[in-house]
Design goal:
This protein starts with a strand and ends with a strand. The strands form 15 sheets. Strands 21, 22, 23, 24, 25, 26, 27, 28 and 29 form a 9-stranded mixed β-sheet that branches. The protein contains no helices and 87 strands. A hairpin with a 2-residue loop joins β18 and β19. The protein is elongated, with a radius of gyration of 47 Å. With about 725 residues, the chain is mainly β. The chain has 9 domains: about 5-80, Immunoglobulin-like (Sandwich), CATH 2.60.40; about 85-160, Sandwich (Immunoglobulin-like), CATH 2.60.40; about 165-240, Immunoglobulins (Immunoglobulin-like), CATH 2.60.40.10; about 245-320, Sandwich (Immunoglobulin-like); about 325-400, Immunoglobulins (Immunoglobulin-like), CATH 2.60.40; about 405-475, Immunoglobulin-like (Sandwich); about 480-560, Immunoglobulins (Immunoglobulin-like), CATH 2.60.40; about 565-645, Immunoglobulins (Immunoglobulin-like, Sandwich); and more. GO terms for molecular function: semaphorin receptor activity. It comes from Kitasatospora aureofaciens. This is IPT/TIG domain-containing protein. Pfam families: TIG.
């Protein structure tokens, strides 16, 4: 029966040849020749009566593929086309939004069937063999652009999708020219300009989400915008402020403590009022009026108002001379305590008051009075009265022993902020946790905020004031958990593996976090926690343990992506194993085991993250090859991870077993395991052949010399036994 070709796959390839081609049809048994046009292929494999595999030779244009058999002659011809794979040399532009017109330059674009931006198809027009105009489809980030023609798919070129910048806030939203303004938002990378209204501002891009700009000259409320290569952002309002102005003071003179009305404009948002260099307490009544209290001072001073827009002009205020108290020594005590009042203007003093109670006193000099504290309680104001008026006041506190009623919290680590509640804390000079001094702040007569110093166990907290030391309250030091190791410290992104956390103070763990994801705790002791790792992305995350005492130090844990196998070289070998196989794929750097089916390979050598070599184990048939790493075990691919074991070929007979020394005799080799025959030798001389079936190979004897030679068959399964062929004259 004549051979018939129904299809070839693929039906095209590069002019250099080398493309693996599968020929499908019928009547191929005993095929002796395969041609691409007039060029015979160097070798081919008869897979079955309906299929031959071979490698395309070099060629140009179109060539008719034919198959010749001894009995059926030559088949029909099916066209194979030689073409050049397209090449991209540049994109113009290399970035833009969806809908951008992009010119793709290069070569081999004639007959292009598709253009892809990443995985998205683009509409396009072939302008010439070296140029395509394409419209960028919807997309984001940076994607790879490729062109596909009948000759194949091109190399890739990067195209970056751009997005408009967005302003979410300004800080501050008002100020004068020269104010530093932080613009927050997104998409600021590559910003080319910042405008306050129509005025350009100098600026620095701090990150994709933040710009520091300096407000240019301007007035009123203007719109701030950011421009990048992707376009101009939305706008945010910025208001220019004006300096405050003082027009009058009422009154223009007085003693310290005098209430002064400051009139003018621009007082909204005032941050300070100064009488000379002294700060005054004040209230903003309106944009045009402030009520201030004159601080201590003397002579004539200049009054100014400061707002976020700056400092005003000045107006003169003159101090009149009243007695002034600058200090009390001591500032607290019981009734009967001798108190030295220091200051000025005391000559002729007529009375000294502790609150509303009159005190006995002696004027020692114009700047000093000795007074005896009358009966009283709490904190009272001490004043001196002379013919010029009454002085400012100074506080004197009647002391009682401090009392602690509670601590919040009652336990914690060194550095814990502790609120001490009770009474009599005014003037506190020290707080002790056991014998250790603590830093503290007196919040009120009934409350102190203290920071627990270094300590351990349960200690007694006390407060000391000029009146004495308080009762005590117990505070217990807790110890933070400490992690020293993770076993293992890496695992699959799918999670689910068991991790043992070792350390100290781990009892009573309330949570274990892998980054922001909680792990499941399965066992917990003071020195060890066993957890089930949660799922995570392929990256390093910090593992922490939290107990009632707080959160531990972090240790890194590495999520490893599962390996993938994309190819094997070779894809077949002897059933006895022992040959080296190169495995290609991804995520292979940490490979700990490789299996051919259920059999473990040996001598695993990591070449790179994408390549390893192993020694194949013993096996039979076609098996799936898998790689195992901390990220898991590779899964079934698309047939490119399968390995076929081939049994050694066996020769049982030659027919005929003799021939001419000139060669050219057709010899039928019978035996078993002959399907994958890749070479036939008469002695050391190679012979042409065709594998007809698993039990039959047709070969042509090469020239030889008179006498016997040993005929052998070689395949991926090894070399066969020898059969004797007799060369005759």
């Amino acid at each position: 029966m004549a051979p018939v070709i129904s299809s070839i796959n693929p039906n095209h390839g590069p002019p250099t040849g080398g493309t693996a081609v599968t020929i499908t049809g019928s009547g191929f048994t005993g095929a002796t020749l395969v041609k691409f046009g007039t060029v015979p292929v160097s070798s081919f494999t008869l897979v079955s009566d309906s299929q031959i595999t071979t490698t395309a030779p070099a060629g140009t244009g179109s060539a008719a593929v034919t198959v010749t058999t001894p009995l059926g002659g030559t088949s029909n011809g099916v066209t194979y086309t030689y073409g050049t794979v397209p090449v991209i040399t540049s994109l113009t532009p290399t970035s833009g939004t969806a809908g951008t017109s992009v010119i793709i330059s290069g070569s081999g674009f004639t007959g292009a069937s598709s253009v892809h931006f990443g995985t998205a198809s683009a509409t396009f027009t072939v302008l010439s063999d070296g140029q395509i105009q394409a419209t960028a489809p919807a997309g984001s980030g940076t994607v790879q652009v490729t062109v596909t023609t009948p000759a194949g798919t091109s190399n890739s070129a990067a195209f970056t999708y751009t997005v408009l910048p967005v302003i979410t806030s300004l800080t501050p939203t008002s100020g004068t020219a020269g104010t530093s303004v932080i613009i927050s938002g997104s998409g600021f990378t590559g910003a080319s300009s910042v405008h306050f209204g129509t005025a350009s501002a100098t600026f620095t891009v701090l990150s994709d989400g933040q710009i520091q700009a300096t407000a240019p000259a301007g007035s009123g409320t203007v719109q701030v915008t950011v421009t990048t290569p992707a376009g101009t952002s939305n706008s945010a309002a910025f208001t220019y402020t004006v300096l405050p102005v003082i027009t009058s003071l009422t009154p223009t003179s007085g003693t310290a403590g005098t209430s002064v009305i400051i009139s003018g404009s621009g007082f909204t948002g005032a941050s300070s009022v100064h009488f000379g260099t002294a700060s005054a307490t004040f209230t903003v009544l309106s944009d045009g009026q402030i009520q201030a209290t004159a601080p201590a001072g003397s002579g004539t001073v200049q009054v100014t108002v400061t707002t976020p827009a700056g400092t005003s002009n000045s107006a003169a205020f003159t101090y009149t001379v009243l007695p002034v108290i600058t200090s009390l020594t001591p500032t607290s005590g019981t009734a009967g305590t001798s108190v030295i009042i220091s200051g000025s203007g005391f000559t002729g003093a007529s009375s000294v008051h502790f609150g509303t109670a009159s005190a006995t006193f002696t004027v020692l000099s114009d700047g000093q009075i000795q007074a005896t504290a009358p009966a009283g309680s709490g904190t009272v104001q001490v004043t001196v009265t002379t013919p010029a008026g009454t002085s400012n006041s100074a506080a004197f506190t009647y002391t009682v022993l401090p009392v602690i009623t509670s601590l919040t919290p009652t336990s914690g680590t060194a550095g814990t902020s502790v609120i001490i509640s009770g009474s009599g804390f005014t003037g506190a000079s020290s707080v002790h946790f056991g014998t250790a001094s603590a830093t503290f702040t007196v919040l009120s007569d009934g409350q102190i905020q203290a920071t627990a110093p270094a300590g351990s166990g349960t200690v007694q907290v006390t407060v000391t004031t000029p009146a004495g030391t308080s009762n005590s309250a117990a505070f217990t030091y807790t110890v933070l958990p400490v992690i020293t190791s993770l076993t293992p410290n890496q695992g699959p992104t799918s999670g689910g593996n068991t991790v043992t956390i070792s350390g100290t103070n781990l009892s009573g763990a309330t949570s274990v976090l892998f980054g922001t994801h909680a792990a499941t705790i399965t066992a917990n002791t003071a020195t060890q926690i066993t957890v089930t790792a949660p799922a995570g992305a392929a990256q390093s995350v910090n593992v922490t343990v939290t107990t009632s005492a707080g959160t531990s130090n972090p240790l890194p844990y590495f999520y490893v992506a599962a390996p993938a196998i994309t190819g094997l070289i070779p894809t077949m070998g002897p059933s006895g194993g022992g040959n080296t196989v190169t495995i290609f794929g991804s995520g292979l750097a940490l490979t700990s085991a490789v299996h051919f089916g259920a059999a473990a390979a040996t001598n695993i050598t990591v070449i790179s993250d994408s390549q390893i070599t192993v020694t194949a184990p013993v096996g039979t048939g076609t098996v799936l090859v898998t790689a195992t790493t901390p990220g898991g075990t590779s899964t079934v691919g698309l047939g490119n991870a399968y390995y076929t074991y081939v049994a050694p070929p066996v020769i049982t007979s030659l027919s005929p077993a003799q021939g001419s020394v000139s060669g050219g005799d057709d010899v039928l080799i019978r035996g078993s395991n002959l399907t994958y025959t890749d070479a036939v030798f008469f002695g050391t001389a190679p012979a042409s052949f065709a594998a007809v079936s698993d039990t039959m190979v047709v070969t042509t004897s090469p020239p030889g010399t008179v006498g016997p030679v040993t005929v052998t068959v070689h395949s991926p399964g090894g070399t066969s036994n020898g059969a004797t062929f007799q060369y005759q004259p």
